[in-house]
């Protein structure tokens, strides 16, 4: 498979994972406000109890989407893109292991030093 296509599909997958994470994160407050009213009529309860229940139900969604972001694999080094040994940083602009920039189109030979290596062996 051509590495450009591999990169393109990997970045498309990362874009989807990131979009779902941001929708779940930013939709937390509006989602709670939208769900509390219909649930209060369904369960005949009102107030902070239902807000707490809906917020607690939202947390596994945030954890699931966060874990999907954390498990994104770098298309070049196949390491965890956003995780170094200790920290998960989803706003990272390059791979934690090989420093491949996010959204890079392809691996150029100059970027990985292949021209220098081939010049040494020729
Ligand atoms: Zn990498």
Distinctive features:
mainly alpha; 4 helices; 0% strand; disordered C terminus
Helices and strands in order, then pairings?
Layout: H1 3-26, H2 28-43, H3 48-70, H4 114-121
The structure holds zinc ion (ZN).
Total DSSP helices = 4
**Fraction in helix:** 55-70%
Q: What ligand molecules are bound, each kind once?
A: zinc ion
Average pLDDT taken over every residue: 82
- Overall, the morphology is elongated
Instruction: Decide which structural class fits the backbone.
Output: mainly alpha
Please, how many domains? 1
Rg from alpha-carbon coordinates: 21 Å
Low-confidence stretches: 114-122
Main sheet?
A: none
Please identify the oligomeric state. Answer: single chain
How many β strands by DSSP? 0
- Report the portion of residues in β strands: under 5%
**Element-by-element helix/strand order:** HHHH
The N- and C-terminal alpha carbons lie at a distance of 27 Å
Describe this structure in words.
The chain is mainly alpha-helical. Helix content is 58%, strand content 0%. Helix 1 (3-26) runs antiparallel to helix 3 (48-70) and helix 2 (28-43) crosses helix 3 (48-70). Residues 114-122 have low confidence and may be disordered. Bound molecules: zinc ion. Zinc ion is lined by residues 74, 76-77, 79, 95, 97-98, 100.
Compact description:
This protein is mostly helical. The chain is 58% helix and 0% strand.
């Amino acid at each position: 498979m051509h590495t450009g296509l591999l990169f393109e599909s990997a970045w498309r997958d990362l874009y989807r994972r990131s979009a779902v994470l941001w929708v779940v994160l930013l939709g937390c407050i509006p989602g709670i406000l939208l769900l509390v009213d219909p649930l209060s009529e369904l369960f005949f309860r009102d107030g902070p109890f239902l807000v707490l229940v809906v917020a607690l139900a939202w947390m596994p969604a945030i954890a699931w989407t966060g874990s999907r972001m954390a498990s994104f694999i770098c298309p070049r080094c196949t390491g965890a893109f956003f995780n170094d040994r200790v920290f998960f940083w989803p706003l990272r602009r390059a791979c934690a292991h090989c420093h491949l920039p996010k959204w890079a189109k392809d691996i150029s030979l100059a970027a990985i030093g292949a021209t220098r290596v081939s010049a040494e062996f020729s």
